[in-house]
Write a structure and sequence with these properties.
heterodimer; A: about 220 residues; alpha+beta; 3-stranded antiparallel beta sheet; two-stranded antiparallel sheet; 5 strands; about 10% strand; B: about 400 residues; mainly alpha; two-stranded antiparallel ribbon; 13 helices; 2 strands; about 0% strand; globular
């Protein structure tokens, strides 16, 4: 009687729980699970080591955004007081967080690594206007860290390695560049070293557990 | 029925024998009030119980923040729904849209009125003494009690159907089409399995049915188990509870018939749904498990009956949650197959088998032989039905277009 076995399963779980434990619930506001290395959270606009903004106002992020939540207007740099090292800079930069789906396509589209994502996701607003972040809120502080705004709840570590994706395996996605540094320095951090690449990962796992080929630890560590 | 107790619009309650005065009216109002309040509290606890129990069966915690063990979660949800914005879609039929929740809710209340909750049925006929007046522990005992139950569950179909139709939106409309087909189909199986009980007890009055079952003479074994199984399955379908919840299949129809409902009207639908679960469990207890029957284990005569009733009621509430936790939803054709090709023939056949047993007893024939002959005939008919269905299926597979290619 295959139909009745299911009832035994639910009853068994009710009475004894399972090998996975009595409950699998995370009591969210009280206990929080650790976030993955490249968690997609609230954006930041990065700056170079000398304090110049990386954004050049090219609007590629706005073009690629599937939710159309980014609004960018570029302008020519003022010659006496340039904002970015290039010809133009991001004059207006707005992200509407009521629309953003945190897909990270803007980060991948950005040619200067200006926009990246922090691990912050616990923030809320009480009206629609507050949901639109402008450049004032998105650009990093003078120490290269994201601004921690009053309505945001930052956990320790959320503001670190906000550009972790850049050091993912290889620049430009070309496997031959694995382990090579091909990105610019960042305010507060300088030029970061590359992550341990895929080839190194495979070698390590082959050596560690030769008998267990199903298990690969892809988590990057620094 | 004796002349004194002659059927009247007031039902068979001994309360009204000596005429209706102020005391009788007040006692009746008290009973109505208590039943009403009981149902509301029971729904609150039932929703909490279901969420907690199903969480335990799925290795989750369930509501645990509002009050001890989250027991006030339903109240919190209810208060939230009361204060939410009430939207009426522009495309809707406004009058019917507003009427539909009440068409669901009112029948749910009315069914509970005919359920005997307690009273001494161990030899007695369930009378208790209330402020010096003899009465039954049920709001009303009309001579057509069980017909009222069937009628009300039919009216409840209108609630679901009109809600979906008046929403002016496609998913609710699909849900209401499903609802009317499903509930009407399963009402047939429900009525036929119920007929077996009526055959044995010989009365439509719920009090009479319970009295007939006193001293362990429960209909569960008097009708040889099958009608109760059929009734339980058909009742689950009638309640739109999983695994028969095609009417509000979230994966297919968003929210089903109540997709466009919000605020208090949505709350009314939910109230009605869980209230129907409770009243249907109470009806099953009344019909098959002898209602408040059971060994008297208390010194207070009427308390034992109440306790037995609630123990049995709880058993079925647990069963409904257990079904939901265990079984995946039926596909629509499976649902119709189960209803029309299995439950209806089975309950109809079983009714005839029970009838043959009784007729054989009346005529002085060998009852065992009569039942065996009837079972053989039923098996033969069932086999023919199965063959016919298989042939039809094979023909469909050979020509899927059915000649309409």
């Amino acid at each position: 009687m295959g139909y009745l076995q299911g009832f035994a399963v639910t009853l068994r779980k009710l009475l004894k729980g399972t090998e996975t434990g009595r409950v699998v619930t995370t009591q969210y506001p009280d206990e929080k699970r650790p976030k993955p290395e490249r968690f997609h959270g609230r954006h930041v606009l990065n700056r170079y080591e000398d304090g110049m903004e990386k954004c050049i106002g090219c609007e590629l992020c706005a073009g690629v955004c599937p939710a159309r939540c980014i609004y960018v207007r570029g302008a020519d740099n003022p010659p006496d007081e340039p904002v970015s090292p290039g010809e133009r800079f991001g004059y207006v930069y707005e992200i509407n967080y009521l629309r953003c789906i945190h897909c990270d396509l803007c980060v991948e589209a950005c040619p200067t690594e200006a926009i990246t994502e922090s691990k912050l996701f616990e923030f809320s607003f009480t009206n629609r206007a507050d949901a639109i972040y402008t450049k004032d809120e998105l650009v990093v502080d003078d120490d290269g860290r994201p601004q921690q705004l009053p309505w945001e709840h930052w956990e320790p570590g959320d503001d670190e390695h906000t550009s972790a994706w850049v050091r993912a395996t290889s620049p430009s996605g070309v496997a031959a560049y694995e382990g090579k540094v091909a990105w610019s320095g960042e305010l507060g951090y300088g030029i970061r070293s590359p992550e341990r690449g895929q080839a190194a990962e495979d070698e390590a796992s082959d050596a560690d557990d030769a008998g267990d080929h199903d298990h690969h630890d892809h988590g990057g560590h620094h | 029925m004796t002349a004194v107790l002659g059927p009247s619009i007031f039902g068979l309650d001994p309360l009204y024998i000596g005429g209706v005065g102020l005391a009788e009216v007040l006692i009746t109002l008290l009973k109505v009030g208590v039943a009403f309040a009981f149902l509301l509290v029971a729904v609150m606890l039932m929703i909490w119980f279901e969420r907690k129990l199903i969480s335990d069966m799925q290795n989750r915690i369930g509501p645990n923040l509002a009050g001890p063990f989250g027991i006030f979660q339903t109240m919190a949800d209810g208060i939230k729904l009361f204060f939410k914005e009430d939207l009426i879609p522009e495309q809707s039929d406004r009058l019917v849209f507003k009427l539909a929740p009440y068409l669901s809710l009112v029948p749910a209340f009315l069914v509970f009125a005919v359920v005997p909750l307690g009273g001494d049925f161990n030899g007695g006929d369930g009378r208790i003494s209330l402020f010096g007046h003899e009465t039954f522990l049920q709001v009303s005992d009309p001579p057509v009690g069980i017909l009222l139950v069937l009628a009300m569950s039919s009216v409840a179909v209108y609630g679901v159907m009109l809600a979906g139709w008046s929403s002016g939106s496609k998913y609710p409309l699909l849900a209401s089409v499903r609802a009317s087909a499903q509930m009407v189909s399963y009402e047939a199986a429900l009525g036929l399995s119920l007929a077996a009980v009526l055959l044995k007890s010989g009365s439509l009055s719920t009090n009479q049915i319970v009295s007939e079952q006193s001293m362990w003479n429960w209909n569960l074994w008097v009708t040889w188990v099958v009608p109760m199984v059929v009734f339980l399955i058909a009742a689950t379908a009638e309640l739109n509870r999983p695994p028969f919840d095609l009417v509000e299949a979230e994966q297919e129809l968003v929210g089903g018939f109540h997709t466009e409902y919000s605020s208090i009207r949505f709350a009314l639908f939910f109230l009605a749904e869980f209230m129907n679960t409770i009243t249907m469990s109470a009806i099953i207890v009344t019909l098959f498990l002898g209602g408040p029957n059971g060994p008297d284990f208390t010194t207070v005569g009427w308390l034992s009956g109440l306790l037995w009733f609630f123990i049995k009621l709880f058993l079925f509430l647990f069963t409904f949650v257990w079904l939901r936790a265990t079984l995946p939803r039926f596909r629509y054709d499976q649902l119709m197959d189960l209803g029309w090709k299995l439950l209806i023939p089975l309950s109809l056949g079983w009714l005839l088998v029970l009838a043959s047993y009784d007729v054989a007893g009346d005529r002085g024939w060998n009852r065992g032989a009569a039942v065996i002959v009837m079972l053989a005939i039923m098996a033969a008919l069932g086999g023919m039905l199965a063959l016919a269905l298989r042939a039809a299926r094979q023909r469909r597979e050979l020509d899927p277009q059915g000649g309409f290619a």
